[in-house]
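Predicting holo structure, flavin-adenine dinucleotide bound.
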Amino acid sequence: MADVIIVGGGPVGLLLACELKLGGAEPLVLEAATGDGRAARSLGLRSLNARSLQSLALRGLAEPMAAAQHALFDELSKLRSPGPDDMIGLLVEFTGKGMIRGHFSGLPLFDASGNAEYVMLKQDELEAILAARAAGLGVEVRQGCAVTDVVQDDSGASAVLADGQVITGRFLVGCDGGRSVVRKRSGFAFTGTPPTMTGRTAIAELTDPGQITSSIRAPGGLVTPSLVPGEISTLEFGGGPDDRDEPMTAAELAGSLSRVTGLDVRVAKLTTGIRFSDNTRHADTYRRGRVLLAGDAAHVHSPIGGQGLNLGLQDAMNLGWKLALVAAGRAADALLDTYTAERHPVAAKVLRNTRAQVALMRPGPQVDALREVLAETLRLPEAHEHFATMMDGTAVDYAPGTPVGRFAGAHDLTDGRALLLNAGPVPVGYEDRVRAAVSDEEQEVLVRPDGYVAWTAGHGDLGEALATWFGEGGMLGA
Ligand SMILES: Cc1cc2nc3c(=O)[nH]c(=O)nc-3n(C[C@H](O)[C@H](O)[C@H](O)COP(=O)(O)OP(=O)(O)OC[C@H]3O[C@@H](n4cnc5c(N)ncnc54)[C@H](O)[C@@H]3O)c2cc1C
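Done. Tokens:
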């Protein structure tokens, strides 16, 4: 029996599987799609913010992500450079120069130093990097396994497959995206606000490509040609997509482009297209017994500002080591409750800022004026920093106002164990979970496997912190 069944082999499921394996647990990933079925998801670029990159760097994964961006940007820069009014194009261009920390509703947040931690890459490239790491760690991923139901009892949780097969683990995590079967079948409440807009991104050839060469913000909505050749996006207000499962047609895209621009736009060929909305909902808790949620399964919102993937990857980093410890009987079950306690407030803030960003995308002279006022405000260094740390994720702090719960910075946590810095040897019985090291900084600190501070000298007792976060010493090895 696997320790943890992960439903969904998207980016969040794959990273969680890697984290579990590193922590000594045996995960099994059940993914509905097969290789080909996942191709359409690579539409559009995905941004990784500073905190995601700092977290991925702890496992040596930030570099391959940055390399994928560089390869992509080299290719793109040969094809076209953005015009001065091309909002997305400018963002992409400055990203290539390391000068972007993110954006708020399209208003860029800069880092003049050129050392910004911000990467844009295609989702299939990101998933390929995570899949290669999972394979390297020996994670089993079963494709073509659509889960239709979930059941749990005191000893475990089971996934029921479409063919009736039942696969049981000690725990089960739904990483199965916004329309999560795990969430629906396990009784999680998922409350929020319904969609007010429809977004479309497509790979298409316009009959007259000269009609749309840069971003257009018009009374009907928004059109943005992507720097990725042949990709174009529209945003229209007035409700969500009628049927998200129907394949997009050339006529549908042409209709949307024409309504927004007021031009008679014809689409000569549509290769593929996806729809999205600002449906904004949040699971009431991320854990019900032996079933947990991570990523889009736990929270959905508009993609404006590029935060869903970032949230989900950090859910996986937070949950992975905790669930590995509990599944192995090393730490008490209560450790899992800290997952909701720490991550739910972070997602709630993202849901709030995405609602605000959608409001700022609406057409009309009042919103135009609001955008101008905000752009002026962002010239104030303190305001700029506030928005930048909100969007690059570095404002995340699990115990605000104290020195614990904050991100500890760059450390070697590649083996997935916690790190006891400058505080002598690891107390007996914790050697399998904690590694000791000495650094140039004199501060004594215990860093969790996800890079956050668990204890620092002068703020609580080290023994208590070890027991809280890593269970009693020697439980397994004794
Ligand atoms: C246009 C667009 C642009 C975006 N840009 C950004 C961005 O720049 N930055 C950012 O941070 N986020 C962005 N996002 C959001 C980001 O794509 C998602 O937040 C991210 O993909 C969530 O990852 P996930 O693994 O939780 O879910 P998903 O990527 O949805 O993966 C879920 C997986 O579960 C599988 N699955 C589903 N149901 C079942 C089942 N019943 N049984 C088995 N398997 C199942 C699916 O096949 C899929 O592989 C964007 C989204 C869109 C639509």
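Residues 7-13, 30-33, 44, 46-47, 123, 146-147, 175-177, 181, 201, 276, 295-296, 303, 306-310, 312 surround flavin-adenine dinucleotide (CB under 6 Å).
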